[in-house]
Amino acid sequence: MSLLGKKWHIKNKDIRVPLYRRLLENRGISDEADEQRFVYPTRELDFHDPFLMKDMTKAVERIFSAIKNKERIMIFGDYDVDGITGSAILIRILKALGAEVSCKLPSRLKDGYGLRTKFIDDFVNSNVKLIITVDNGISCADEIDYANLKNIDVIVSDHHTVPARLPNATAILHPKIPGCGYPFSELTGAGVALKLAQALAISTPKFAPKKATIVNEALVDDFFDLACMGTVADLGDLRGENRYIVKEGLKKIAETRWPGLSKLKEKAGVKGEITTETVGFQLCPRINAAGRMSDPTEALRLLITDEKNVEKYAETLDLLNRDRQNIMKELIDIAENDIENQKENPILIVCNTSFHGGIIGLIAARLCEKYNKPSIAMEVRDDIIIGSCRSIPGLNIATALTRVQEKSPKNKPVLINFGGHPAAAGFTLKAQDEKRLFTELNEVICEMMKDFEPSPLLNIDTVLGESDISFESLNIIRLLAPFGMGNPAPLFACTGLPVHEVVTVGKDKTHLKIRVRANGTIIDAIGFKLGGFEQNLRNAKKVDIVGELDENVWNGVSKIQLKIKDARISK
Q1: What are 94-141's pLDDT values in tens digits?
Q2: What is the pLDDT of residues 13-29, one digit of tens each?
Q3: Spatial separation of the C-alpha atoms in residues 290 and 272, rounded to whole Å
């Protein structure tokens, strides 16, 4: 039995095939043309013409009309990294074009997700004539109808699940709507914003006033860092255009022209090579902390200001992230206790008055990862409950919520509103309907899981022999980067490694270090948050490790190491 009780599945055991070929085959890449395009994506083939997206021409013409007529434009974004970075992209391009533009980001804690009529009333009072949504809007048909009544046009830019009823917007920029025609469907909210910025830049000579003709695609290139962050944070599929955006964006982050992002890197201790891990675990949590713990506008301000003195903005985000980490530790313990009698259920649902609205998504994610079950964490706010969902591969949680809603009487729906992705979603409901949701969602999940049995399966790319635990192999692996959703970092099974030492490390001894002998030397294998398993391996003579091959640099010296994902005593 492995430390995590997972079944190990090795995709490719044929060690006669070169490592590079095995890794490509595991990613469905078999011919030379596909290999070249995957490893070396190009602007020509992978960064598509934005006008291939349905309604892009309508959106561009309406925006330039607003600029020409000096109409006030309101960017309405979301409070997460994807919405914040996408909003920053559009604010910067529109300001460069001379637009009268403002931005509104809802409060996760006070407002919830998406456009609301109260915001539209505020926009009327501020003489707004055009709203551009970022990372939301596709499920806001009623609110957009209200905006139309108030003589405000709306351009929707979004990527979330497409509802049966589309909003009556001036333009809908969404890569998945019927008849969209765009060659890549997996853009995130920041990705769609980037395409709109690209379209505006291309169209500048045709539409913009003379003072704005300096805007061109060179400025769009500077937005790749922001789009990269949104794509990584929102778990965009790292194939096709997303892969190109992230690959170019990582380079831009390393030399970003935005003062706020430079200062954020400094606060996060980011040095050297920028990877998706750097973005996902060091930069994005600090951007997200603003929306989770306070006001998302604080993060947006950091990304759109050109002041050299951005220290205070970055410091605020860093402090908020520390607060988030401390609260998270306390609430996870509460959640673990609350699900004690639910572990046989198909879905885990926790609701506690102490839950913080900015943390419930993280609680759901932690439970989902640990127990391999779809999970929901809910916050009680007066007579309303706000829920955040995370799901397992093969079970679309957004579809599950849709089915629950469809089963409800039309005059008494169980959910007030909802939306999201296959892997993550959110909703609100009346507190009195909590038990009703629990019952109906369990029934729906049971029905959806009839055709598959979720198991704690650990998919491993291939076996790595001792001699292959080397920098040569690491350089091969790096050709396949960037890694993330749709292109996970390669996992290897390294078997029968002689154990030199097993210890716990870290400030609170929460991490596991196994020092093993391989390839004629002692190599460190590090298991983050696996310190509790030290006793299991203390007397092991040999171990099997599943992990990623990695480089550890200390005092200028580089050493090869393994990042443990699971381990067991060798038979």
Answers
A1: 999 999 999 999 988 788 788 999 999 999 999 999 999 999 999 999
A2: 988 899 999 999 999 99
A3: 26
> For 314-357, what is each residue's pLDDT tens digit?
999 999 999 998 888 889 989 999 888 888 888 999 998 888 87
C-alpha 229/C-alpha 234 separation (Å) is: 8
Task: Give the strand pairing for 375-381 and 153-157.
Answer: unpaired
Q: In what order do the strands lie in the sheet with 384-390?
A: 348-352, 375-381, 384-390, 424-430, 417-420
Residues of the chain with CATH 2.40.50.460: 7-37+457-569
Angle (CA) 201-207-210 rounded to 5° is: 90
Task: Report, in angstroms and rounded to the nearest whole number, the Rg of the chain calculated over CA atoms.
Answer: 24
Give which of 363, 407, 409, 408 is closest to 386, Cα–Cα: 363
Which of 165, 127, 22, 2 has its CA nearest to residue 462? 22
Placement of tokens 């390393």 in the chain:
254
339-451 — its CATH code?
A: 3.10.310.30
Q: The whole model's pTM is what?
A: 0.88
Task: Decide: helix, strand or coil at residue 326.
Answer: helix
* Domain limits, CATH 3.90.1640.30, in the chain: 45-316
**Rounded distance, CA 13 to CA 141, Å?**
51
Contact yes or no for 233/227 (Cβ under 8 A):
no
**CA-to-CA distance for 348 and 350, rounded, in angstroms?**
7
Q: Residue 78: name the closest of 24, 126, 15, 135 by CA.
A: 135
Decide yes or no: CATH 2.40.50.460 for domain 7-37+457-569: yes
SS3 554: strand
pLDDT digit string, tens, across residues 287-302: 999 998 999 999 999 9
Q: Which residues have a Cβ under 8 Å from the Cβ of 517 and sit 6 or more positions away?
A: 497, 498, 500, 523
Residue 392's SS3 state is: coil
Query: How many other C-beta atoms can be found within 10 angstroms of the C-beta atom of residue 312?
Result: 12
Percent of the chain clearing pLDDT 70 (strictly above): 98
- Mean pLDDT over 166-174 rounds to 98
Query: Which of 219, 184, 172, 227 lies closest to 200 in space, CA to CA?
Result: 219
What's the 3-state SS for 244-275? HHHHHHHHHHHCCCCHHHHHHHHHCCCCCCCC
CATH topology assigned to domain 45-316: inorganic pyrophosphatase (n-terminal core) (3.90.1640)
- What are 546's strand-pairing partners? 493, 566
